[in-house]
Design a protein that fits this description.
It contains 17 helices and no strands. It is elongated, with a radius of gyration of 30 Å. About 30% of the residues are buried. It has about 325 residues and is mostly helical. The model is unreliable at about 1-80 (pLDDT under 50). Helix 6 (about 130-135) packs antiparallel against helix 7 and helix 9 (about 175-190) runs parallel beside helix 11. Among the domains are: about 1-80, no CATH class; about 240-319, no CATH class.
Length: about 325
């Protein structure tokens, strides 16, 4: 029987015995004369930890806590944890490496990508990421390995981002590697936006690579507005460039709303992306300079977006 199974079995039995004692107390039956209690107390084969204790409630518990009247039913260890994510997470967070390895070993391949398998692998990454990598390389199902590569990389990055990045970059080229690199890129962007941009640039064209590039460029804009603006404009014309310029303009608005608005209008063609950029810029600009943002909006030609901006500034129906 696995260690965690024993733990749940013992805990459930203790709880059930305590509830029986509470019930007998509420019915004014002294616990020392309870046949069940006497039998358990005199049974030398029962560990001391299971010997009945005095009732633990000073006030009558709620009805939901005293509903046990029938004899104790056998408890299936596999049913104790149930599927409550919080309970499973708390249990797994306290496991040691041996228990984690045994827990993963008890799961069939198709269950490794479920909640329990992912939590066990994350825990192993916290304890010994290299051992977790070795275990993952031996998983027979290639699809499971691909899916868990991302799980392990992110969990490892919480403890050692450079180590996780080095491991993922060493993997053979594959979609799983690309996805793991993209997800790690978000972690890298928090501390080194330039490196995150490099990761995005080396990924094959995909939606997740584009999203990483836009996110990393925004992070870069917070640190170096001028260089980030130039880099955004160096992208080939198209949707990705427009979205990146929009993202940078929104960040620039926190520092210079007028410059950000001009940057967006001058570099994004008319359309939904420009509208989104202008709305974002004006909303941030107005937080620090209401009169400046209003004056700029008034200077726009009559249009739907101008009316929307005036409404967002609280100037309803102004023309």
């Amino acid at each position: 029987m696995k260690t965690y199974q024993k733990y749940f079995w013992m805990t459930s039995l203790l709880t059930a015995i305590s509830l029986l004692l509470v019930w007998s107390h509420l019915r004014n039956i002294p616990s020392q004369t309870d046949p069940v209690a006497i039998e358990v107390a005199r049974d030398d084969s029962v560990p001391a930890v299971f010997h009945p204790a005095p009732p633990i409630f000073s006030e009558p518990p709620s009805p939901s806590l005293v509903s046990v009247e029938s004899p104790l039913a056998p408890v299936e260890p596999s049913a104790i944890p149930g599927e409550d994510p919080e309970k499973i997470a708390v249990l797994i967070a306290a496991l040691g490496e041996v228990e984690v390895r045994e827990g993963l070993g008890s799961l069939p391949d198709q269950d490794l990508t479920g909640n329990r398998g992912r939590l066990l692998l994350r825990r192993w990454a916290e304890l010994n990421p290299n051992a977790a990598v070795n275990w993952l390389s031996q998983v027979g199902d290639a699809g499971v390995r691909r899916e868990l590569t991302d799980v392990l990389a992110i969990a490892w990055s919480d403890k050692d981002l450079p180590g996780a990045l080095t491991w993922v970059e060493s993997l053979p080229e594959s979609p799983a590697k690309d996805r793991a690199l993209a997800d790690l890129g978000y972690e890298v962007a928090r501390v080194d936006s330039v490196n995150a941009l490099q990761i995005a640039a080396q990924l094959p064209a995909s939606d997740y690579a584009n999203e990483l590039l836009i996110h990393s460029m925004a992070q870069y804009a917070s640190a170096d507005p001028e260089q980030s603006a130039q880099l955004a404009l160096s992208l080939p014309e198209g949707s990705l460039r427009d979205r990146t310029v929009s993202s940078v303009a929104t960040i620039l608005a926190k520092q210079d709303g007028g410059a950000a608005a001009s940057f967006a209008v001058n570099n994004i063609p008319p359309g939904p992306e420009l509208d989104r950029a202008v709305v974002g810029v004006v909303q941030l600009w107005s937080q620090d300079n209401v009169s400046g943002s209003q004056a700029w909006v008034y200077s726009l030609p009559d249009s739907f977006i101008r009316d929307q901006l005036l409404q967002s500034l609280g100037i309803i129906g102004a023309h």
